[in-house]
């Protein structure tokens, strides 16, 4: 059985109006590649540690890590990345889920 893939991104948005165009394009690409938003910039409450200036956080679930990578490298998402230039700085990673969550 394949493990789910989770795309985790943090965005430091500098131009909210321009970022809206990126959001629209990336949302379409995520749906096209079978992704589902789990977190999309919701309210954050610090419980522990010293994380300062918490950025916008996004978590997207894909059926597999390979599916998440296909989304990321797709022409559709590359167009979204191009639209994001100058609007936000982004850190993004993909991580494997666990086979049998407790």
Global geometry: flat
Radius of gyration: 14 Å
**CATH architecture designation of the domain at 16-42 and 55-96:** 2-Layer Sandwich
Q: Approximately what portion of the residues adopt beta-strand conformation?
A: 25-35%
Beginning-to-end CA distance, first to last residue: 17 Å
H-E string = EHEEHHE
Structure annotation, total helices: 3
Quick one: biggest sheet?
4 strands, antiparallel
What portion of residues is helical? 25-40%
Query: What's the CATH C level of the domain at 16-42 and 55-96?
Result: Alpha Beta
| Structural class by SSE content | alpha+beta
Instruction: State the total count of DSSP E strands.
Output: 4
In the sheet with the most strands, the strands line up as 2-3-1-4
In terms of per-residue confidence, which ranges show pLDDT below 50 for 5 or more consecutive residues? none
Mean pLDDT reading: 92
